[in-house]
């Protein structure tokens, strides 16, 4: 977790939702975001002295990395170690961001078949994943999503989930510094109860597939009727 998610709101809408200035390049909505894709993030900007909606490559590339492909292995940062990891700790202290999402995907294996599930707010509100960012070679903004142990019924789908921040925690997260345990505390039971888990079509397993149809329920399997002779 988290290896696929959906983010479909426009940069203008995100600017309003997060009270931020939009500096991001225009991105098409995506119902199947995959590692290394460009994604919207919300971060603090010294230049604008405000929050900005920016564009980052999903998969943090440490400043010392020689190859950008290293980012494909660093799409997630574990909340348990982000404050001490050499690759993630500097960004956790000084370069935190929010990663807007509509929901995220996980898979559960049932015998030889894998069923995809989509986790999303029941009221269709925006999710803010806790994220960190860095600039690779002064030209490529990259980010990672923090994950934590899955809570409640979500643990039946996967043992990890994104660290999701409610609106009242956004200022503290974006400010930098602060107390790690407090910053990394999990969502409350009430916030967790607002997350809906629904089975969706298997098409989402292919990164080339995209569109709102990926969020629809899978077609029921039709058992062949026995023919009597």
Write a structural description.
This protein has 229 residues and is mostly beta strands. It has one domain: Alpha-Beta Complex (hypothetical protein yedk fold). It is 12% helix and 35% strand. The chain has a 5-stranded antiparallel beta sheet with strand order 3-1-8-9-13. Strand 4 and strand 5 (50-58) form a beta hairpin. The termini are far apart.
Summarize the SSE layout with pairings.
Blueprint lengths: L4 E3 L3 H7 L3 E2 L7 E4 L4 E8 L4 E9 L17 E3 L10 H6 L1 E6 L1 E8 L2 E9 L5 E10 L3 E10 L10 E3 L7 H6 L4 H4 L5 H5 L1 E6 L29
What distinguishing features does this structure have?
229 residues, mainly beta, hypothetical protein yedk fold, 5-stranded antiparallel sheet, 5-stranded mixed barrel, 13 strands, 12% helix, globular
Based on secondary structure, the structural category is mainly beta
Q: Please provide the ordered H/E string of secondary-structure elements.
A: EHEEEEEHEEEEEEHHHE
Overall tally of domains: 1
Average pLDDT value?
Answer: 92
CATH class: Alpha Beta
Number of strands: 13
The CATH architecture classification is Alpha-Beta Complex
Portion in beta strands? 35-45%
Biggest sheet, open or closed, and with what strands and sense? Answer: 5 strands, antiparallel
Number of continuous helical runs: 5
Shape: globular
Q: What radius of gyration results from the CA coordinates?
A: 19 Å
């Amino acid at each position: 977790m988290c290896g696929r998610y959906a983010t479909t709101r426009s940069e203008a809408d995100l600017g309003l939702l997060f009270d931020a200035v939009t500096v991001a390049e225009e991105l098409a909505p995506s119902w199947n975001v995959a590692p290394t894709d460009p994604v919207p993030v919300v971060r603090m900007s010294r230049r604008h002295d405000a929050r900005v909606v920016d564009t980052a490559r999903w998969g943090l590339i440490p400043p010392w990395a020689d190859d950008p492909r290293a980012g494909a292995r660093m799409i997630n940062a574990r909340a348990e170690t982000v404050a001490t990891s050499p690759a993630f700790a500097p960004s956790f202290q000084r370069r935190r961001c929010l990663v807007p999402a509509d929901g995220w995907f996980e898979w559960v294996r049932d015998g030889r078949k894998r069923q995809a599930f989509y986790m999303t707010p029941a009221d269709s509100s925006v999710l803010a994943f806790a994220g960190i960012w860095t600039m690779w070679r002064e030209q490529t903004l990259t980010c990672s999503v923090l994950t934590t142990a899955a809570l409640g019924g979500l643990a039946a789908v996967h043992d990890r989930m994104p660290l999701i921040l409610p609106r009242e925690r956004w200022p503290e997260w974006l400010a930098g510094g602060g107390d790690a345990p407090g910053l990394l505390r999990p969502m409350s039971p009430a916030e967790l109860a607002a997350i809906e888990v629904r089975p969706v079509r298997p098409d989402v397993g292919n990164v080339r597939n995209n569109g709102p149809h990926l969020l629809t329920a899978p077609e029921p399997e039709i058992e062949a009727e026995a023919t009597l002779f």
